[in-house]
């Protein structure tokens, strides 16, 4: 194109020079040059008119992907890492059949030691007539979510309770507490989730309390079971969650097939979410069973999921995609270990 331009410039220069020399003796040559120039102007105008729509179309075509890329960069997608039920730590002590989400007792995996303030999620089944004998704890926040059966709790604070389905017992071990967890039933096992979290303060006064959250309350809804005391404030109604000294909330739901629930991120800024689906039997069903979906990840009974790149304010939607109701727990927590 540069050769053509140079040639045209040279031709124009020659014509101009000729025009200047000949104009006094040849009016016809001047008229021809003027007509040629006018024709060129028309051709250029037509070319510009035809090129403009094409340029706009091309502009729109190539700009859109750039906008999508920018949007993706400024609003990163959730990072969801599945924790399959069978990949958890597992032990069968005859009296205790258990799965460990995080490193616990003889099970150790450096990839799964904690998540935010969460330190333990054990799914325990205790055989009839057996249990955890009296033992001590300090500093940890410990709560038990009863799935089936009856669990007897007895501690050094003088508490003695029999906990059944829907009940949650909470112990803030603080400076130290001793307790036992026992299945006094002679016929059936007790199935519960034992959860430990690290408090944001050490040296707390030992504390114990229980609350009940029914299946009806949790049916197709998220019910707040535990809540950070800084967010809970002075609320102490029977339907209010249990307060704990960690930037952690725990919701529970029993979600019917095809139903959805939406979790509102509890605080602004960077957060972490952990999901845990409760098992109905000792192993995940090979087909069917309770299943939930978050993002593009499907979780069956016993599966868990680490969710990073969470930011509040925001929402996370959970859908039940199995052929039976899925019972699950949702933890919303600050990003750092306590």
Describe this structure in words.
With 338 residues, this protein is an alpha+beta fold. The protein folds into two domains: 73 residues; 255 residues, Jelly Rolls, CATH 2.60.120.10. It is 23% helix and 40% strand. It contains four helices and 22 strands. The strands form four sheets. Strands 1-20-17-22-15-13-14 form a seven-stranded mixed sheet. A seven-stranded antiparallel sheet has the order 2-3-4-11-6-9-12, with no helix packed on it. Strands 5-10-7-8 form a four-stranded antiparallel sheet, with no helix packed on it. β18 and β19 form a beta hairpin. The longest helix is centred in the N-terminal third of the chain and has 48 residues. It comes from Dendryphion nanum.
Q: Which features does this protein show?
A:
globular, transmembrane helix, 338 residues, 4 helices, Pirin, transmembrane, Jelly Rolls, disordered N terminus, membrane, RmlC-like cupin domain-containing protein
Lateral strand order in the biggest sheet: 1-20-17-22-15-13-14
DSSP strand tally: 22
CATH superfamily of the largest domain: Jelly Rolls
Low-confidence stretches: 1-32, 51-75
Overall pLDDT score: 85
Count of discrete domains: 2
Please state the second-level CATH architecture of the largest domain: Sandwich
Rg, Cα atoms, Å = 35 Å
Helix-strand string: HHEEEEEEEEEEEEHEHEEEEEEEEE
Strand content: 35-45%
Biggest sheet record: 7 strands, mixed
Approximately how much helix is present in the residues? 10-25%
CATH topology of the largest domain: Jelly Rolls
Shape: globular
Structural class: alpha+beta
CATH class of the largest domain: Mainly Beta
Distance between the termini: 68 Å
